Backbone:
């Protein structure tokens, strides 16, 4: 893979390469005329509204004016002027705010895709709330080898990127299939006949927490459940029990569930459900709730978008109560399905991380030129 590149370097720049300020190699444009006028986004609209940050696509607009017409032939790098984050864009778009710059390369000297990889090599970020491009970023010194060398570096690094994307797509498809199988069998297994039903209020202690999201600590001692699939941490706890946690409002209503045994903290708008009778296995109830609760609240929600749960909806939630042995059999089966999904999910994340590290290793190796 590297032999052609080494030949080019030996031939075209045997003594090293010139380093120049990135601002000399790149022109920028302010986003003012591309800012979206309305944030009334809709997935049925065509034009994405972008940010250079982690969320990238904020939504879609139907505004027909002030569109930046990027394309595969005329791509652009969008740069967050406050954080240093950046994205490669090769499709038409609008932007959310003025805190961005659109970067284009001076193509007679440097390729834009080479600049994109160089920006990853710089690995710069900032939490200072100040404009970065003019004051800091544009002054960074970067290697500028001949265009033939740049092209070969881009080819190698893009190949790593493409392989990672293909692997991610394959493993994601496999994970999706596993989850669909899990959901299918879970629904089938809970089609119980000739069993007694109990309302949740008769078998559990139901309540909320008293913590706020801003109380989390990065390395806290106890799990801290908020209205999110991610578990945060705190140094204090409110409960010490076996419980099922679900979000009381927000985007994840009816779709976010956690199972906890031990000490934990809880957000004030998240519900805890602690089974108080000995003829229901808590893990059985957890799986039953994960499988059926969303359909239940869709029929009983406060509004059609299912944004919140009222206590009455939980109190009156009906639970089938088969014999303990049957409950345990169901738990054992679903534990196995859950492990299969988690194994491939963890494998997916580990493989993507490994590929990313491989890409970063070669990127840093390829872009570490000797300066002349």
Residues:
């Amino acid at each position: 893979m590297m032999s052609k590149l080494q030949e080019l370097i030996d031939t075209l720049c045997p003594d090293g390469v010139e380093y120049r300020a990135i601002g000399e190699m790149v022109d920028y444009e302010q986003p003012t005329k591309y800012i979206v006028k309305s944030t009334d986004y809709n997935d049925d609209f065509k034009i994405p509204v972008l940010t250079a940050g982690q969320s990238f696509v904020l939504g879609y607009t139907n505004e027909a004016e002030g569109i930046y017409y990027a394309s595969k032939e005329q791509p652009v790098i969008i740069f967050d002027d406050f954080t240093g984050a950046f994205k490669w864009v090769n499709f038409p778009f609008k932007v959310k705010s003025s805190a961005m710059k659109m970067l284009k390369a001076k193509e007679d000297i440097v390729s834009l895709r080479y600049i994109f990889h160089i920006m990853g090599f710089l690995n710069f970020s900032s939490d200072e709330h100040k404009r970065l491009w003019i004051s800091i970023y544009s002054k960074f010194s970067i290697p500028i080898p001949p265009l033939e060398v740049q092209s070969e570096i881009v080819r190698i690094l893009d190949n790593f990127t493409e392989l990672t994307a293909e692997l991610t797509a394959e493993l994601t498809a496999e994970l999706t299939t596993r989850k669909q199988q899990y959901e299918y069998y879970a629904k089938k297994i809970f089609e119980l006949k000739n069993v007694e039903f109990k309302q949740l209020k008769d078998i559990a202690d139901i309540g909320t927490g008293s913590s706020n999201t801003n109380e989390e600590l990065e390395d806290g001692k106890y799990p801290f459940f908020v209205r999110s699939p991610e578990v945060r941490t705190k140094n204090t706890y409110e409960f010490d029990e076996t419980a099922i946690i679900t979000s009381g409002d927000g985007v994840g209503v009816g779709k976010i569930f956690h199972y906890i045994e031990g000490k934990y903290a809880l957000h004030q708008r998240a519900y805890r459900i602690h089974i108080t009778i000995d003829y229901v296995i808590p893990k059985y109830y957890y799986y039953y709730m994960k499988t059926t609760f969303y359909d239940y609240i869709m029929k009983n929600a406060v509004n059609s978008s299912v944004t919140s749960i009222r206590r009455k909806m939980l109190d009156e939630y009906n639970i089938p109560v088969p014999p303990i042995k049957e409950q345990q059999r169901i738990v054992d089966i679903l534990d196995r399905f859950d492990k299969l999904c988690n194994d491939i999910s963890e494998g997916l994340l580990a493989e993507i991380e490994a590929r990313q590290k491989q890409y970063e290793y070669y990127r840093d190796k390829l872009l570490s030129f000797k300066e002349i």
The two ends are 26 Å apart (CA to CA). Residues 196-321 form a domain with the Adenine-n6-DNA-methyltransferase TaqI; Chain A, domain 2 fold (CATH 3.90.220.20). The mean pLDDT is 91.
